[in-house]
Amino acid sequence: MKNALLPDNFDFQSNLPLWTLDQSRKMIYREFIFVDFKQAFQFMTLCAQYAEQIDHHPDWSNAWNKVAVNLSTHSSNGLTELDMQMARAMDLFALQL
């Protein structure tokens, strides 16, 4: 079930090595750095389209070539498979650019 909380022993380091777990805020985060604003915006566009498809939207901000992302499932008050799915997709989108 995609909205079920991940187990307490979920191995974030193995599954998402580029992301950082913030247990106190029940989220994962990562900063993506691109060559310029255009590439960062392309990344955000790909992510936004995918987020609409899976109905799971990131909390993020953009400053020129950087995109800072926080993922959490607010309706479940924690991390779920939807967050893992979105993080993996974002990692792949970043590699494409």
Describe it:
It is built from three helices and four strands, in the order H-E-E-H-E-E-H. The mean pLDDT is 95. It has a single domain, classed as Gyrase A, domain 2. Strand 1 and strand 2 form a beta hairpin. By secondary structure, the chain is an alpha+beta fold.
Provide key terms for this protein.
97 residues; alpha+beta; Gyrase A, domain 2
Task: Give the topology.
Blueprint: H1 12-15, E1 20-22, E2 27-33, H2 37-54, E3 59-63, E4 66-71, H3 81-96
Antiparallel strand pairs: 1-2, 2-4, 3-4
Helix pairs in contact: 2-3
Brief summary of the model shown:
This protein has 97 residues and is an alpha+beta fold. The chain is 39% helix and 22% strand. A hairpin with a 2-residue loop joins strand 3 (59-63) and strand 4.
